[in-house]
Design goal:
about 250 residues; mainly alpha; 12 helices; about 5% strand
Length: about 250
């Protein structure tokens, strides 16, 4: 209940708030004041700070013009108040597509916000400044997808019983992770960018879990990748290459 209250949910049981000694609800009018107080409490409690991630802000481009303009101004206000030191220890991350940062319906609608977010990306991507206000994220490649798979496998291995670890590292070695990543990507029309979700789901649920539970399971011998349309998102289904003319929706 307290987490719901902190998240701004409108209906929180009175008993929960009474037990914590709080009154009222958290709404958009008091959100920044509350955030400032939370940062102070965290700092005084010994924490180094708070990370707040505003994900997929490009969705603002699809809301009503008046709501979009208020949201853009709220972002500008938040950035300025962080710079002024109102939120001690706060690290704000805003993620969005290039259309939001550069397009006519995004940050450019509010020139003061566009000025604060502007970053020069005219140089080659390998010379991007990681200290700049904007950081350009490259798309997935097979190599980076394999790196994510290897790290996921290593985390999985840390959490299993000691007796299974050697078998997991033997059967699901780096070369097998690459084989699976290549197979998933190939089934999705070689579009690496849409493959991570399905790849990790197959790696953990179909391969690692089975190797952990069954001592004689060898994914190279006993597992064949299959992707059913029902388990894919619309984007993933659209990425699949047609195997016959009957697969083409007219």
């Amino acid at each position: 209940g307290l987490l719901a209250w902190v998240g701004g949910q409108p209906h929180v049981a009175a008993g929960v708030k009474r037990g914590a000694g709080i009154k009222g609800d958290l709404d958009h009018d008091g959100a920044l004041a509350f955030l400032s107080g939370l940062c102070v409490v965290l700092r005084d409690a010994g924490y180094s700070g708070l990370v707040v991630v505003l994900d997929e802000v490009e969705t603002l481009q699809r809301v009503r013009a008046d709501a979009r303009d208020r949201a853009l101004n709220a972002l500008r206000q938040l950035i300025d108040e962080i710079d002024a030191g109102r939120f001690p220890g706060l690290y704000l991350v805003i993620t969005g597509t290039p259309a939001f940062f550069d397009g006519p319906q995004g940050a450019s609608r509010l020139p003061p916000l566009a000025q604060r977010l502007h970053t020069d990306f005219t140089a080659e991507a390998r010379f991007d400044n990681p200290r700049a206000v904007q950081v350009r994220l490259p798309g997935f490649t097979i190599d980076s997808l394999c790196e994510v798979g290897v790290r996921t496998r290593d985390l999985f291995v840390e959490g299993v019983e000691t007796g299974s670890r050697e078998r997991l590292l033997h059967h699901v070695d780096d070369s097998y992770v690459r084989i699976l990543a290549t197979a998933v990507t190939g089934d999705l029309g070689n579009k690496v960018g849409v493959a991570p979700r399905v790849f990790l789901k197959k790696l953990v649920g179909d391969v690692l879990d089975r190797v952990d539970q069954f001592a004689d399971f060898d994914p190279r011998l006993h597992y064949k990748l299959t992707l059913a349309d029902s388990e894919l998102t619309e984007v993933e289904r659209n990425a699949r290459a047609a195997t016959s003319v009957d697969d083409i929706d007219l």
